[in-house]
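User: Second chain of the day. Same drill as before.
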Amino acid sequence: MAAVTLLETRGLSKSFGGVTACDGIDLALPAGETLALIGPNGSGKSTFTAMIAGRIRPDRGRVLLRGRDVTALPAHARIAMGMAYTFQITSVFADLPVRENVALALRRTVRGEGRVQLRTEQTLGRVGLLARADQPAGDLSYGHQRVLEIAMGLAQNPALFILDEPTQGLSEPEVAEFVALMDDLPAATAVLLVEHNMDVVMRLAGRIAVLDAGGLIAVGPPDRIRADPAVQAAYLGTADA
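Assistant: Same format as last time:
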């Protein structure tokens, strides 16, 4: 039985001051799949994910979530439909305790303070931050702030989890912990992973989509993408390199 398509973009396009950031991108992500989005700097990855998340309105095209056209919906409405995302630049509430950062994320979708606090404790334990629960988030190391932001998304048990450069700035042990967290996601969770660390991409992704100059140049399983001459030229380096 074919997996249900959770996310679909049709002709998604965006320009800034005459510069095309994304040009007619068609992409589908089934429930339960991890799809990595790669490409050189300036290829349109962050713009594309921001349009999916509802942070930027496209000039043309549509975003469908569970078959519903959500192109005109604000970000908070998409979160209520089961979407969670992390930012490329870490975004936590620095003056609030670690536990309150996670609790705030949960209150978007979870009713009842008891349930919020229980889920908060469970999530912090899952990501290894429970011992730091009462510490101001701004006092955490950069790596731990990245982990906290991931925890804020994980706590919501999203159907679609968008991660924009989640391993940026992480140490090798922290990257390994991130991979383990992704491996432990519920089987039905779809993940859109924007990532430069190709070891992480090859380890986690069932398929890889490659952007270059705002256009989608290849989509397929890791082995095929690795061998694709267009991808090698645009991003991975030539086959002889």
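Strands lie at 5-16, 19-30, 34-38, 60-65, 68-69, 83-86, 160-164, 190-194, 207-212, 215-220.

User: Great, on to the next one.
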